[in-house]
Amino acid sequence: MQDNALLSNPLSRKRERAGVRAAVSAPVQNARALRQSPTTAEQLLWRHLRNRQLAGAKFRRQHPLGPYILDFVCLEHNLVVEIDGGQHADPQAQAYDEQRSAWLQQQGLRVLRFWNHEVVQQTNEVLAHVLQALTPALSRLREREVNTED
């Protein structure tokens, strides 16, 4: 199926005739694989975030950024939502998550973390927290729109 997709793109057909295949980076391949096998919590949250359902914000899932693959990210509002399973309770994993969050914050992103069971058992509370994180960004965006109209 992937070959058919490549052949339907004129640029890809041209490369294919020239014997050149576009290389897909390892992070992109990993992100694609993660999108194919989401956890129950990821599936549930994605149902609420996709198609700009939450405050009109565009979320991407399993999005590669730098050395990491982000569970969910809204680039227009600089917000990352991570869903952690039990493996993240390990002290080494916690240290890694702190390092990862620090790097993301250095890139200008805000990071929200939720446990799998929170997303599954308290979906509305998780969505309210995400919405609250989006609200200041939405207010600043609306403020800019008003100021540019003057």
From TrEMBL:
<feature type="compositionally biased region" description="Polar residues">
    <location>
        <begin position="1"/>
        <end position="11"/>
    </location>
</feature>
<dbReference type="InterPro" id="IPR011335">
    <property type="entry name" value="Restrct_endonuc-II-like"/>
</dbReference>
<protein>
    <submittedName>
        <fullName>Endonuclease domain-containing protein</fullName>
    </submittedName>
</protein>
<dbReference type="Pfam" id="PF04480">
    <property type="entry name" value="DUF559"/>
</dbReference>
<keyword id="KW-0540">Nuclease</keyword>
<keyword id="KW-0255">Endonuclease</keyword>
<dbReference type="GO" id="GO:0004519">
    <property type="term" value="F:endonuclease activity"/>
</dbReference>
<feature type="domain" description="DUF559">
    <location>
        <begin position="29"/>
        <end position="134"/>
    </location>
</feature>
<dbReference type="InterPro" id="IPR047216">
    <property type="entry name" value="Endonuclease_DUF559_bact"/>
</dbReference>
<keyword id="KW-0378">Hydrolase</keyword>
<dbReference type="InterPro" id="IPR007569">
    <property type="entry name" value="DUF559"/>
</dbReference>
<feature type="region of interest" description="Disordered">
    <location>
        <begin position="1"/>
        <end position="22"/>
    </location>
</feature>
